[in-house]
């Protein structure tokens, strides 16, 4: 009758699964802004991976004879106050920035997602405790929280990642909790309980996969924010420390020469701008593509 | 019939209350019932009479708003209400399992059918993943899904309502439970599929030697499947009878009303009416009428009905009525 699975159904299924992916991919591709963001991101990624190939030599070795040179054929983006190639430092800086972006969202995901799941699923006192702690953290502007944490933990790459990561945690907790609140009322969650699934199984096998879409989108957007925060900390001199090439720190040191050598601050600024922009455009595109209610 | 044997499930004076902002809701108010091995018991009543809450109370699946469950639920002589979380978890899906009303929403959209069916045996019998998968395929074959190997790899959105309900039944039966709680298993399906699912359940009941507590408001389904019927109204049992006796000789005015509201072709010629409705609506759970809960709607209301709750009259084995009309044989 109608409910007969053809023998070829598994093939059909794999095609179907493909086609869902493909449809989302098609929606994403039709979104020109998202494509632009994605391409930019791929460029950044390759730049970071191939930095030693693109720019042979050390980005941190000073060469005071050619300090503060404007862009020339030899140094495409000019040099900074210590005569180091700004292009080279931006190239190597992309490694730091992407590393920070990945590190920060890892902290946010690893801490925020389980707490959000627990908070939304168990409700009651646990939920209350987690939510009030979240409220307290959200009361600080995100950047101020990161800055305060750096003041406690100290400067450096690791502490930058940890402090910005922690400032991301409440955002993940809120997001995941909200989604779990709706999913936990689904009949299939009750059905899973009715076959004797343990709470952990319900949380991670039945609920988590159903809230992955907003988490994915948030992760993309959070990476952009992380780069911006890290650059902010670097600019203030409390982020990644010199001589490590970090965009925010470059911007900060270039600020002094803004009038006689504007390129020193401008180019790292553009690098930050484009990196954050690419993550945001891709995140928006992902949100539109993965949301089934939003038909393009 | 089964009187001498120990019942598989015996519910004694079950009260399930919900504490909500407006007050206390007595969703189930002193329900007694028994299910014997290999038996199908029908639990009938209007929406909101406490049928589903009774079933959910058995497995303690009521969480929100927090429910207070009192009484005794004896399963194989053990009181399920004495068990801790882990104890009841080991019962769920293993010795007692449940089929839900909505096949469209009771399967997880992101997991394949096979994963969901094999979950129970992996949990309760510690079966390794691959063996459990093969078991899931066998279960799908048993619930007569064509191409079970392929179907196991499907996600639920690929399956029709009837197929999903089959998959749910496969999931419920995968650990060979002694008792199946079927909460309106056919309500959401169209009639031809209903008939298929019912005959499937009857066959599987024999194959697996499972007892069924069948919750429904569909008297046709009851007539087809159940051997004994319990009628509930507003959180209480109002009548219990073997299925033939109930249809032939309903004693409680509510049961009579229920049977009268089933359309029967040709009845118009006999009674002048094709359908008889029960006037009025189910009382709100927060303000139950004093006396018999059915009295505001009862066509045979007497003065005493408005004052005192009627006692349960035992008319025979598995034959009881809760009505003032049955004065003789009051227990």
Q: How would you describe what is shown here?
A:
The complex is a heterodimer of chains A (296) and B (331). Chain A has 296 residues and is mainly alpha-helical. Chain A is 72% helix and 0% strand. Chain A has twelve helices and no strands. The longest helix of chain A has 37 residues, at 86-122. Chain A is elongated, with a radius of gyration of 23 Å. Residues 1-15 of chain A have low confidence and may be disordered. Chain B is an alpha/beta fold and 331 residues long. Chain B contains eleven helices and twelve strands. Chain B has helices at residues 51-58, 85-91, 113-125, 129-142, 148-152, 161-173, 191-208, 219-225, 243-248, 253-260, 267-271; strands at residues 9-20, 23-35, 40-44, 67-75, 78-79, 96-99, 179-183, 211-216, 228-233, 236-242, 312-316, 319-322. Chain B has an eight-stranded mixed β-sheet with strand order 6-7-8-3-9-10-12-11, with helices on both faces. A four-stranded antiparallel β-sheet of chain B has the order 2-1-4-5. The longest helix of chain B is centred in the middle third of the chain and has 18 residues, at 191-208. Chain B is globular, with a radius of gyration of 21 Å. The two termini of chain B are 20 Å apart. Chains A and B meet through α1, α8 and α9 of A and α2, α3, α5 and α6 of B.
């Amino acid at each position: 009758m109608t409910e007969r699975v053809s023998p070829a159904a598994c093939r059909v299924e794999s095609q179907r699964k493909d086609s869902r992916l493909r449809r989302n991919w098609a929606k994403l591709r039709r979104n020109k802004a998202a494509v632009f963001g994605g391409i930019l991101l791929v460029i950044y990624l390759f730049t970071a991976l191939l930095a030693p190939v693109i720019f042979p030599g050390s980005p941190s070795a000073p060469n005071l004879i050619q300090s503060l040179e404007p862009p020339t054929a030899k140094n495409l983006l000019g040099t900074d106050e210590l005569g180091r190639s700004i292009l080279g430092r931006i190239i190597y800086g992309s490694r730091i920035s992407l590393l920070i972006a990945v590190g920060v969202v890892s902290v946010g995901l690893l801490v925020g997602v389980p707490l959000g799941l627990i908070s939304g699923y168990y409700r009651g006192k646990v939920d209350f405790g987690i939510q009030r702690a979240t409220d307290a953290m959200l009361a600080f502007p995100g950047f101020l929280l990161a800055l305060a944490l750096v003041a406690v933990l100290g400067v450096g790459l690791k502490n930058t990642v940890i402090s910005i990561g922690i400032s991301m945690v409440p955002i993940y907790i809120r997001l995941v909790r909200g989604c779990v609140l709706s999913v936990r009322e689904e009949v299939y969650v009750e059905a899973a309980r009715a076959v004797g699934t343990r709470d952990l199984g319900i949380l991670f096998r039945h609920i988590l996969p159903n809230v992955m879409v907003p988490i994915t989108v948030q992760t993309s957007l959070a990476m952009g924010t992380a780069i911006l925060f890290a650059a902010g900390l670097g600019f203030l001199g409390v982020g990644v420390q010199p001589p490590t090439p970090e965009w925010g720190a470059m911007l900060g040191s270039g600020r002094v020469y803004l009038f006689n050598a504007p390129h020193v601050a401008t180019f790292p600024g553009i690098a930050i701008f484009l990196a954050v922009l690419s993550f945001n455009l891709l995140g928006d595109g992902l949100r539109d593509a993965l949301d089934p209610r939003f038909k393009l | 019939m089964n009187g001498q044997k120990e019942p598989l499930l015996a519910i004694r004076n079950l009260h399930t209350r919900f504490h909500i902002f407006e007050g206390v809701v007595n969703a189930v108010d002193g329900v007694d019932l028994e299910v014997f091995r290999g038996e199908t018991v029908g639990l009938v009543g209007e929406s909101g009479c406490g049928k589903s809450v009774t079933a959910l109370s058995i497995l303690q699946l009521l969480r929100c708003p927090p429910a207070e469950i009192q009484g005794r639920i004896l399963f194989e002589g053990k009181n399920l209400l004495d068990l801790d979380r882990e104890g009841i978890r080991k019962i769920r899906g293993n010795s007692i399992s449940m089929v839900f009303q909505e096949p469209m929403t009771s399967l997880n959209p992101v997991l394949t059918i096979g994963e969901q069916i094999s979950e129970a045996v992996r949990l309760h019998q510690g079966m390794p993943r691959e063996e459990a998968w093969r078991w899931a395929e066998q279960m799908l074959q048993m619930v007569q899904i064509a191409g079970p190997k392929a179907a196991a790899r499907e996600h639920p959105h690929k399956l029709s309502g009837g197929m999903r309900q089959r998959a749910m039944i496969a999931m419920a039966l995968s650990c060979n439970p002694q008792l199946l709680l079927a909460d309106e298993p056919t309500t959401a399906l169209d009639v031809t599929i209903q008939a298929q699912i019912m005959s499937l359940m009857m066959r599987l009941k024999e194959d697996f030697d499972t007892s069924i507590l069948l919750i429904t408001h569909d008297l046709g389904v009851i007539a087809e499947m159940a051997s004994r019927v319990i009628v509930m109204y507003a959180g209480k049992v109002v009548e219990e009878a073997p299925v033939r006796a109930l249809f032939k000789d309903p004693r409680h005015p509510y049961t009579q009303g229920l049977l009268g509201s089933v359309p029967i072709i040709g009845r118009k010629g006999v009674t002048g009416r094709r359908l008889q409705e029960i006037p009025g609506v189910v009382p709100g759970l927060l303000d139950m009428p004093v006396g018999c809960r059915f009295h505001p709607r009862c066509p045979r209301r007497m003065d005493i009905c408005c004052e005192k709750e009627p006692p349960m009259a035992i008319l025979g084995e598995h034959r009881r009525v809760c009505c003032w009309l049955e004065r003789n044989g009051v227990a």
